[in-house]
Amino acid sequence: MMLYKDTLPSGKHWSMKMRRGTSLRLIDKTGGANVGVLFYNPENLLERYNAPDTLKCQHTFKLTKGHCLYSDMGRIFCAITEDSFGWHDTVCGSSNAAQVEKKWGKRDYQNHRNNWKQNGHDAFLVEAAKYGLNKQDLAANLNLFSKVEPNDQGNLTYSTEQSKAGDFIELRFEMDTLVLFHTCPHPLNTDTDYPEFEVEYQILKSAPMTEDDLCKNSCAENQRGYENNRLYHLGL
Question: How far is CA 66 from the centre of its chain?
Answer without folding.
Answer: 15
